[in-house]
Write a structure and sequence with these properties.
261 residues; alpha/beta; Glutaredoxin; 2 domains; five-stranded mixed β-sheet; two-stranded antiparallel sheet; 9 helices; transmembrane; disulfide oxidoreductase activity; Thioredoxin_CS; Thiol:disulfide interchange protein
């Protein structure tokens, strides 16, 4: 979603709307000292905490330090574990004598409906297939983007974009480790002369590093902000889109689920 120059990734926006709906319903139905709002907030917070810890536990070797674990911008959450944690804390909270059971349950159901509806609407948005295009490369040649019979990942980035800078080494490593996936790096710098020195200074080696200085291909791909990563299946059909930075863990998780071996 884009508000002026502010671009908000859709998944967290849908989640925040669902949380707002749940808390609003709880506030209307359960006013009083032992508020239903508090119970709903606790259920949501515990679910998020459990989901994050479970995800980190699965990919602990990919998180270098505590700061990376705390940086939830990578959206690394284990949904089933989070739901289980929420259910257990909900069951415990509802056993209290002063629990406002009906308002809490109705509020959480309202949040679930909003979240589910948002996911359905998001899935029905137009998903363009992999376009054919010829673009200049970082090595001063040209390259054709086309259906190759392999899964394709297009990472749209710019040298002036801090989240892009953070995730680019992760993509470079993944490109080396997964030769069965066609990784394409689409740079959006208006002045392309600094891209190659930028990569060389940081010892980042990319195959299929292309320039799109006027943003023509990014427009065709419906890119709204940077970094954006697009995942296409073997037939060139878009199967997933991610706005925002990946960590080593979340990129590994996405590739494992989208392109299982």
């Amino acid at each position: 979603m884009q508000i002026g120059h502010l671009v908000i990734p859709l998944p967290p926006l849908i989640f925040l709307l669902a949380v707002f709906a749940a808390l609003s319903v709880a506030g209307v139905l359960g006013p009083g000292r032992a508020t239903a709002e508090a119970d709903v907030a606790i259920v949501i917070c515990v679910g998020l905490l459990v989901a994050r810890l479970a995800f980190v536990a699965r990919y602990v070797s990919d998180y270098g330090d505590l700061l990376q674990v705390l940086d939830v911008q990578d959206l690394g959450f284990d949904a089933p574990a989070g739901l289980l944690g929420s259910f257990l804390i909900l069951a415990w909270r509802l056993t209290r004598k002063d629990a406002r059971r009906l308002p809490v349950i109705v509020a959480l159901l309202a949040g679930t409906v909003v979240y589910g509806s948002g996911q359905v609407l998001a899935s029905q948005m137009v998903q363009p297939d992999l376009p054919r295009a010829t673009l200049p490369t970082t090595t001063d040649t040209t390259e054709i983007i086309q259906i190759s019979g392999k899964p394709t990942v297009i990472n749209v980035w710019a040298t002036w974009c801090p989240p892009c800078q953070a995730e680019l080494p992760v993509f470079a490593q993944m490109q080396r480790e997964m030769p069965g996936v066609n990784f394409i790096f689409l740079n959006e710098d208006i002045d392309t002369s600094g891209v190659r020195p930028y990569l060389e200074a940081r010892d980042i080696r990319l195959d299929h590093s292309l320039h799109d200085p006027r943003g023509n291909l990014a427009t065709r791909l419906s890119v709204r902000g940077y970094p954006t990563t697009l995942f296409y299946d073997r037939s060139g059909r878009l199967v997933a889109e991610h706005l925002g930075p990946f960590s080593q863990a979340t990129l590994s998780d996405a590739l494992k689920h989208l392109f299982p071996k």
